[in-house]
Amino acid sequence: MSECPYFEKRHLLFKIKPPLEDDEDSSQEGVNKASKGGVVYGDYLQLDKITTAQVLQSELKGNKIHDEHLFIVTHQAYELWFKQILFELDSVREIFISGHVRDERNMLKVNTRIHRIVMIFRLLVDQFAVLETMTALDFFDFREYLSAASGFQSLQFRVLENKIGVPDNLRVPYNRRHYRDNFKGHDSKTLLQTEQEPTLLKLVEEWLERTPGLEVDGFNFWERLKINIFDGLNVEKEKIEKMPESEEKEELTAELVKQREIFTSLFDEKRHDHLVSKGERRLSYKALQGALMIYFYREEPRFQVPFQLLTSLMDIDTLMTKWRYNHVCMVHRMIGSKAGTGGSSGYLYLRSTVSDRYKVFVDLFNLATFLVPRHWVPKLNPNVHTFLYMAECCDSSYCSSEDSD
Amino acid sequence: MSECPYFEKRHLLFKIKPPLEDDEDSSQEGVNKASKGGVVYGDYLQLDKITTAQVLQSELKGNKIHDEHLFIVTHQAYELWFKQILFELDSVREIFISGHVRDERNMLKVNTRIHRIVMIFRLLVDQFAVLETMTALDFFDFREYLSAASGFQSLQFRVLENKIGVPDNLRVPYNRRHYRDNFKGHDSKTLLQTEQEPTLLKLVEEWLERTPGLEVDGFNFWERLKINIFDGLNVEKEKIEKMPESEEKEELTAELVKQREIFTSLFDEKRHDHLVSKGERRLSYKALQGALMIYFYREEPRFQVPFQLLTSLMDIDTLMTKWRYNHVCMVHRMIGSKAGTGGSSGYLYLRSTVSDRYKVFVDLFNLATFLVPRHWVPKLNPNVHTFLYMAECCDSSYCSSEDSD
Amino acid sequence: MSECPYFEKRHLLFKIKPPLEDDEDSSQEGVNKASKGGVVYGDYLQLDKITTAQVLQSELKGNKIHDEHLFIVTHQAYELWFKQILFELDSVREIFISGHVRDERNMLKVNTRIHRIVMIFRLLVDQFAVLETMTALDFFDFREYLSAASGFQSLQFRVLENKIGVPDNLRVPYNRRHYRDNFKGHDSKTLLQTEQEPTLLKLVEEWLERTPGLEVDGFNFWERLKINIFDGLNVEKEKIEKMPESEEKEELTAELVKQREIFTSLFDEKRHDHLVSKGERRLSYKALQGALMIYFYREEPRFQVPFQLLTSLMDIDTLMTKWRYNHVCMVHRMIGSKAGTGGSSGYLYLRSTVSDRYKVFVDLFNLATFLVPRHWVPKLNPNVHTFLYMAECCDSSYCSSEDSD
Amino acid sequence: MSECPYFEKRHLLFKIKPPLEDDEDSSQEGVNKASKGGVVYGDYLQLDKITTAQVLQSELKGNKIHDEHLFIVTHQAYELWFKQILFELDSVREIFISGHVRDERNMLKVNTRIHRIVMIFRLLVDQFAVLETMTALDFFDFREYLSAASGFQSLQFRVLENKIGVPDNLRVPYNRRHYRDNFKGHDSKTLLQTEQEPTLLKLVEEWLERTPGLEVDGFNFWERLKINIFDGLNVEKEKIEKMPESEEKEELTAELVKQREIFTSLFDEKRHDHLVSKGERRLSYKALQGALMIYFYREEPRFQVPFQLLTSLMDIDTLMTKWRYNHVCMVHRMIGSKAGTGGSSGYLYLRSTVSDRYKVFVDLFNLATFLVPRHWVPKLNPNVHTFLYMAECCDSSYCSSEDSD
Questions:
Q1: By the CB < 8 Å criterion, does D256 face chain A?
Q2: Contact A182/B148, CB-based, under 8 Å?
């Protein structure tokens, strides 16, 4: 009806296909012409719920403040989108958990949905511009009525963080309390439960560990890379040693020492485990190798889509920290920092969450430290090429695309 | 609680001020610590309604299609924001209707709220990027289940158009039916009713007609402007006539004729009324004069904020047409144009609504045709300066800012 | 130096690798510490050119108008980005022309660069918001000084249109003249030349025609699809015929007739050629088949990246029309439409370019008209699966990624 | 010509008005038809400079890397916009320095230009999305060729910071060196010089100090406010003391103590000066009073535009820190953090600049700490109303709008 012609009549036709029940059409009898053959727009979207859920506390208290309406609607829009993000995230996690990800045909779906989360977060970052049309003075007029209802005391957002993989022990405490203690009984249980489910981080880690080419008795990427790097560094060293003494030679020598240290750290598994224990790295040593392999061979058909996935995961991390930062900026404007007043500052708490501690896929960023010239990357021999291409054929079971939902 | 520190404890303090009932705090007894002193975040936002309103028709029909969830959430987000826009729009209309706009102190509020509508529309235009992560093929998988529930069969959007001032008789019919006939009983009545309320266009028109300086027995802007323009054109004419014959002279002469025609049309009230009757102009002749006056004297303190208002009204028009156009683009991608298939096309209907017929404040754009050099604009004499400034003092009644809501 | 630490000293190290000349470092002797080892930021970016290229005509004419500076800078920013788009476009066209596209390893590169063009156009659409801070009145103050220097009389933009594939004969004439006649000698030649080079449309067409699976003596997608569709329609027909007489039955029957017409048109090659001759379709019949095949089998690993490419090509088309539409909106605001003045309108010319005639990949949108239920899509048999996967192995030659530039 | 019809022929007409020299038109003789009557588009924009300024270092070194072109163009686009921001900023500073700001008619201009800077920064924040299409691996391929040419070693950006008011002594040192020492001779001098010019911060401070209503022998806003606040706090205290003993009473009492401390700090001039000396406040005590006065009386016609200005100044600060933060995010992705490698990190340096130390108008944010209920704000008596309105009339001299450029 109305103006959007998404649904041309032709679809009536396809309605008579198997998945539909026979009694579906008879159930429409007696229905007004406008809704003939199906559900009406407003009912479909349950607008009776959505557009009646704006109750101003200030109005209840007898002092209606205009801008509270914007405050409510903005937060509801955030929650709607959080719901959508969780829906996408759960479906992606399910594809990994069920093992469907081993069928390469499902990678497009994984990628598309992760990319959709990226696009939603991009919108959410922009959405602050709307709430910023409210000034500190407008906000002051009604914030007293909100009391404990903290603006972003959002269960869905905490669940989202948990499911992506923000670890419990890296969270900044608030009010000197564990983050979970700021929620009530049922919600607190939900949070505990989501902490125990496999996170996106964990699932991606397992998938990276299976990257073809890492096998020690196969292509053995890691060993080959190590050899190439230290060979390369030795060649550099010889070159530098042949140079006449000069300030430049000294600098280059110093640089070389630093380089060697950096790469030595890369191949030091104990050091890796130590960094993991401190929370500075998050992926297993093997998963890290898989990620670096995908980086270096991203142009191989087998790795093009996986490479896009790693990029999108970094996008999510980046956008979540940008969201946090935009939030901080808005809070600064709304309530000030209380610097120099003797008052305690929630603003400063929030600032502390804009930190690499909250970047789940921080290793994917930090791998940039370990890039090497293209000619140091181990060459794939023709067999490995074939191996990589054929990998997709190993899985002969057909996995219908929508089954995995 | 949780992380957002909008609501520091200090507000407990102000809770004890007059508008609050005594029994408010006693009602909190026995409440869990987390919600102490007030409403809890999830209850405040009625998230039980908002986050449970996503029912997939495809799932009901036994064939759950993943992307339908995005489709629902996106449309719900649009409806949430339409609700907010209507809330702002109604409050602005109320300020005009009640006459509070005559107190200059309310202009900041009018401007801020209109600007907020602009910011929301900017978000809504960007929001298409999220829905565009769904492909035509994803959409095809579930669109049959939607049947009559047209994607943008939105009552709120039609109400919004009516309240801004899209006139009934300029609407493109859909399905050969009047737009209202595409809605059912109660909704249809709502639409009829909003057509009969004073539109934003009408209210702005009345306000423009009162622009100080238009008074025939006062500054008489319109007459002065007319004199200056035709004097100016005559001076040009004389200059051109003195030039030696040349191609350039001919061109300039032709241009001058055209100029004279254009300005003659401006001062021809009958022509204006004719254009109004055809829907090519929307404002009364006097309101048009007021708008042009605000344009020319925008730097006068008295006119700075009114000028911003006119600019924001054009922004709304522009963004609404951009929204329509983005919608058209998405529909093209989702269902094709059916060009060359023999099928009828809703896409083409939609395209026809991306038209100046739907620009409510089209006159504010078209006034750009009638700009003149600064030295043709009638000078304000010192008295008029004072008059303009003093205008604000005329209103001595104090109008508390939130009373008008 | 300064603050951006992109370039840590470690890179000094790699500087001593083969492609670098020995004398490079000696050329740095005597250079200030700040630029040691290489080019200085300002020199590198040639800022002496970039930031001195703003000469205001109004200032030259003795009447400096502030806002002309914004006008110049905005247009220069557009031209900078057009240069970048052309650079990406040329590199992609080169990969196609050289045949490197047959090596699947280059598809990531093609996709990334086309996606980059998408991101740039998204920025360019947003960029109008900056120029819109200039009002019609500000513009009026200096537009007389610009005379013939039309705001978007941009050679690069025309070249861009030509290289993507806007055909000469579908262009709307301006000033009753062929578009090329609005440019002078050398520029006009450049335009003619770019019309004769292979367009992106043409190159993509050739690539689509090679889609594996189209071979008549192989999988023969087109014939199988045709059979499935008409079988499907027949099954529907039988179902409907068994229904008792009713209004619904009539509707469904009518719908079925329409459906059959639509699909009959799809398999009618002569009709296709006729639509091509009218400019309503742009791709060859075979390329259309390839595109539909990629749509239907998008989840096959072999087709995931090609499917992304088709999506990005539609993005470019969409964003270019959005850019045109935003341009139209701004021009309306700047100079009005002249409706009802007797003046001729450039605004109306511009509006006419926001048309499907200027959508180069219009067929990719319109294919949405021909989607079918998943169970009508011909099943790939295991051999074809293998065939598809193996296709990538056919090309054994190694194609270094940057050689193709 | 071409498609943009900004410049209709009619403007030829106005060309013959006073400010134009007689010989202007004769200078056009013999010019090609396309450029008749004026400058040609490409010449006007000096595209010969703009579009030829992309020289790839990697190409010069014999190893052309495709993505370096994007790197160059993006930075050039940033520099173009920095040029525009500086142009607007200088013009606004000139209006303040010359005293033209005392003519209220110039406030629209100030506001519009500051708002334009806001819009440009918004674009610059978004612009990172384009550069982010380059991956760490693409960047690695050419970053060695850039050596010392640091990505954002931008003189214009430093000048911009100086002119807005980032103070020398609050800057984070880089490479253990003063920021200025990272620039060469001439540029270093330019920086020193801009440090000594009146900053936007300083000029706004002086303007705030003149806010009408602050006069001790007049309305005496500050004294009245102080009285009202402490009266208000005393009333609260009495209310609380009357409550029966309870946990709530204790909390409220504690809160009240905190409130009193906060407001005591507000009225403590010595404390203010101490905070200024530490860099935690930037405005003079009197200017702070003016800002708070504008906040509280923002709806008075006299203060509506000033209030918008204060809001825009916060926008600039916010967007500059967002820009810095986006920059940090991109650098993290491009070069990693080097955490745990032994390498020193430029990333960490950059992070340290995303700090309130770099927020010039930090006081305008922090004033949110000192908001009070509306009924505590001193009432304007009718005389003061008049006084405020009349303030604008004091300046009788006419200040032509463009003279101030």
A1: no
A2: no
For the record, the structure tokens of C180 come out as 């090329």
Q: Residue D20's pLDDT band (boundaries 50, 70, 90)?
A: very low
**Over chain C, what HEC string results?**
CCCCCCCCCHHHHHCCCCCCCCHHHHCCCCCCHHHCCCCCHHHHCCHHHHCCCCCCHHHHCCCCCCCHHHHHHHHHHHHHHHHHHHHHHHHHHHHHHCCHHHCHHHHHHHHHHHHHHHHHHHHHHHHHHHHCCCCHHHHHHHHHHHCCCCCCCCHHHHHHHHHHCCCHHHCCCECCECHHHHCCHHHHHHHHHHHHCCCHHHHHHHHHHCCCCCCCCCCCHHHHHHHHHHHHHHHHHHHHHHCCCCHHHHHHHHHHHHHHHHHHHHCCHHHHHHHHHCCCCCCCHHHHHHHHHHHHCCCCHHHHHHHHHHHHHHHHHHHHHHHHHHHHHHHHHHHCCCCCCCCCCHHHHHHHHCCHHHCCCHHHHHHHHHCCCHHHCCCCCHHHHHHHHHHHHHCCCCCCCCCCC
The pair of structure tokens assigned to C276 is 């091509």
Among B240, B35, D290, residue whose Cα is nearest residue A148: B35
- List pLDDT tens digits, range B160-197: 999 999 988 888 776 667 888 878 888 999 999 999 99
Q: Which of A77, A150, A344 sits opposite B77 (nearest CB)?
A: A77
* Residue partners of B237: CB distance under 8 A and separation at least 6: B256
Residue among A66, A123, A156 minimizing CB distance to B126: A123
Each residue of C220-267: pLDDT tens digit?
999 999 999 999 999 999 999 999 999 989 989 998 999 999 999 999
**What DSSP line would sit under B308-367, residue for residue?**
HHHHHHHHHHHHHHHHHHHHHHHHHHHH---TTTS---HHHHHHHTSSGGG-TTHHHHHG
Nearest CA of chain A to the CA of C349: how many Å? 27
Asked if B40 and A148 come within 8 Å (Cβ–Cβ), the reply is yes
Count interface pairs B-C at CB distance under 8 A. 129
D150 with C41: Cβ contact below 8 A? yes
Q: Determine, for residues B137 and C338 on separate chains, whether the beta-carbon distance falls below 8 Å.
A: no
For an interface test with A, which of C15, C24, C31, C255 has the most A Cβ atoms less than 10 Å from its Cβ? C255
Q: List CB contacts (< 8 A) between A374 and chain D.
A: 141
Asked if C307 and C298 count as a contact pair (C-beta separation under 8 A), the reply is: yes
* Closest-CA residue of chain A to D351: A355
Per-residue pLDDT at D120 exceeds 90: yes
CB nearest D17 (choices: B106, B248, B373): B373
Please tell me if residue B365 touches chain C, with a CB cutoff of 8 Å: yes
